[in-house]
Specification:
Blueprint lengths: L2 H8 L11 H10 L1 H9 L11 H18 L4 H5 L8 H10 L2 H5 L7 H12 L10 H14 L3 H8 L3 H12 L9 H22 L27 H8 L4 H17 L7 H18 L9 H4 L8 H15 L8 H19 L1
Length: 349
């Protein structure tokens, strides 16, 4: 199909398709469009965001089955072919013959490109090489000075993943302070996030009357979600004294505090009822992973409170009530709370 038709048909599944380049649209028309239509027939929506445990297992299964089918002897050779120049032609031929694109994305309602990137992250042995030595940190600084932010090139020289070298350099270049946040640092962080959020609101709602003069009422804070992505490297630069991960953690802490402040948090008998409702509702979702839970909807289980409060309640429940919870899957934790803890709570009630 022609480019305009492809873009129009893809728009049904990908709302931001207008921002995608023509070359990417052509690839998606070949790799994704028919898959998306098949998923639609099955009543399955195209997904974005974090991959669930179920999807990760499906990717692992797809990769293992393709290796068995094609005879390629390792996932690294399949997904990082450029590391094996002597086998490159053979691997490309086998991938074409055995329909690599179709096989790798089987059963996963996401764009092929995202599935491929996820598979590369899962199967890259360079992702799991432990802490950086002093020598590696010095090499990383030297390579970045030579090659700029060409993380692909630097990752090859360092034998570390692209993501690993980019994140580590972000930590190294920042004037890292591991102590408590000062009032000045916290204010810089708040100002940086506010600036980003106001820019985003203006882009999304150009006719909105929201203005910087209204900052005292914090109208922007309620529009933010704990899991909404923010440009953390930009925010890191504005803060100046902390690296991006510290900024993100601090912001989540501030956001949780702001969203819960002023709420009538349930105590005593009401708190007991809230826990009972929360466990029951979580069990009813049949979710296999925390990312499958609609926390906004679930907040109704404990009353008019934000999702951050519900997530905090769940965290406290699993930590205090579920033995060895770190070794259990999300669904196993829910089952334990439902089968063991719920009867105790209902007895007290």
């Amino acid at each position: 199909i022609d480019l305009d038709t492809a873009r129009q048909e893809l728009e049904e599944f990908i709302p931001h398709v207008k921002n995608i380049s023509d070359s990417s649209i052509k690839k998606m028309a070949g790799r994704d469009l028919m898959r998306f239509k098949e998923f639609k027939k099955q009543g399955i929506a195209v997904k974005f965001g974090r991959f669930t445990q179920k999807e990760n297992k499906q990717i692992q299964k797809n990769v293992e089955e393709f290796l068995s089918l094609s005879g390629i002897d390792s996932a690294e050779k399949l997904l990082f072919t450029s590391r094996y120049p002597e086998d490159k032609d053979t691997i490309h031929r086998l991938k074409t013959e055995h329909h690599f694109c179709e096989k790798i994305s089987e059963g996963i309602p996401r764009p092929w490109r995202l599935i491929y990137y996820r598979a590369r992250k899962m199967f890259d042995p360079n992702n799991y090489k432990g802490r950086y030595t002093k020598e590696e940190k010095e090499k990383l600084k030297k390579y970045q000075a030579l090659h700029g932010n060409d993380w692909k090139k630097i990752s090859e020289l360092m034998s570390r993943s692209n993501l690993s070298v980019a994140m580590k350099f972000s930590e190294i270049k920042s004037a890292i302070n591991y102590g408590p946040w000062t009032k000045e640092e916290t204010q810089k962080l708040m100002n940086a996030v506010e600036e980003v959020m106001r820019r985003r609101l203006k882009t999304e709602n150009p006719d909105s009357p929201l203005s910087l003069e209204q900052s005292n009422t914090d109208p922007w804070i309620d529009r933010e979600k704990l899991d909404q992505p923010l440009p953390w490297t930009e925010i890191e630069t504005k803060v100046g004294s902390r690296y991006w991960r510290q900024c993100k953690q601090k912001w989540n802490s501030i956001l949780t505090s702001k969203l819960t402040r002023g709420q009538q948090l349930y105590k005593g008998i009401n708190g007991l009822q809230a826990k009972i409702n929360l466990i029951k509702r979580l069990y009813e979702t049949k979710a296999e992973d925390a990312y499958e839970v609609n926390w906004d909807e679930l907040s109704n289980a404990v009353g008019d409170v934000p999702r951050a409060y519900v997530q905090s309640k769940f965290y406290k429940l699993k930590v205090s009530c579920v033995p060895l919870w770190k070794r259990k899957t999300f669904s196993e934790i829910i089952d334990y709370l439902y089968e063991k803890k719920l009867p105790e709570l209902e007895e007290k009630f």
